[in-house]
Specification:
Helices cover about 60% and strands about 15% of the residues. By secondary structure, the protein is α+β, with helices and mostly antiparallel strands. The protein folds into two domains: about 5-120, Beta Polymerase, domain 2; about 125-220, no CATH class. Strands 3-4-2-1-5 form a five-stranded mixed sheet, with helices on both faces. The N and C termini lie far apart (about 55 Å). The mean pLDDT is about 95. InterPro entries: NT_sf, Polymerase_NTP_transf_dom. Pfam families: NTP_transf_2.
Length: about 230
């Protein structure tokens, strides 16, 4: 199957007014699995004749599942800025890194604009970093004090996410949710990612806590007494 042709047929049916269309995710990267869907970013000012500036929806078409993110140009700017403010610019990554279906010069111009912002990395103020260190400090203490195995594991996996985000943001790298968080951590530094993740995956929560503590120290250390949230 040619996914570009498939996406064109889908767009012709559902979003014929699309000016720009980009395939993202595993389909664009070429590493689809049996359950992979097709992530599709669609932009055009005439997409919503009845009003609105954005739509996130799921469709089935010719045996494939499409996860569609559709925007007017103003809607895209609004949601892209929101993602950047949250340090998770999903639709900006889709735009810049995905595979073109439609767009031409208009897509090239958008990629230049948003690609430059993506390359800058996130801007995180010291208070936010301190707040994240505060939460990690609390989780580390909870993990070391917990005796219930289920509680310990839930705390440990939450701690992994918080530490991974802190590592990325302290190094001015974008974060992600779900499977994209460990991927971004590995992209930053596969050795640090493995050192943090390996004991967690092997159930050695004592060693995991020690490595999480090392990353916390690297980012500035524990935050507790006197911190104002």
């Amino acid at each position: 199957m040619t996914y570009l042709d498939l996406c064109e047929r889908f767009i012709d049916r559902e979003f014929p007014a699309a000016e720009i269309a980009v395939i993202g995710g595993s389909t664009a990267r070429g590493d689809r699995t049996a359950s992979s869907d097709i992530d599709l970013l669609v932009i055009g000012d005439a997409l919503f004749p009845n009003g609105g500036t954005s739509l996130a929806a799921t469709y089935r078409f010719e045996g494939e599942i499409f996860e569609v993110f559709a925007y007017t140009h103003d809607g895209y700017r609004e949601w892209a800025r929101g993602g950047i403010d949250q340090h998770r610019p999903v639709i900006v990554h889709m735009l810049v890194e995905g595979e073109e279906v439609r767009g031409g010069q208009a897509l090239t111009a958008l990629r230049e604009e948003w690609g430059a912002r993506l390359a800058d990395g996130p801007t995180v103020d010291e208070h936010e970093l301190a707040l994240r260190r505060y939460m990690i400090t609390d989780l580390l203490d909870d993990l070391r004090d917990a005796t219930d195995e289920l509680e310990r594991n839930v705390i440990a996996w939450t701690l992994f996410s918080r530490v991974a985000e802190l590592v990325l943001l302290a190094e001015r790298h974008w974060i992600g949710t779900g499977k994209y968080l460990p991927r971004r951590l590995r992209d930053l530094d596969p050795v640090r990612a493995e050192r943090l993740a390996a004991p967690l995956l092997h159930g050695d929560l004592t060693a995991f806590a020690a490595h999480a503590d090392e990353e916390l120290a690297r980012a500035g250390g524990r935050v507790q007494d006197g911190f104002v949230r």
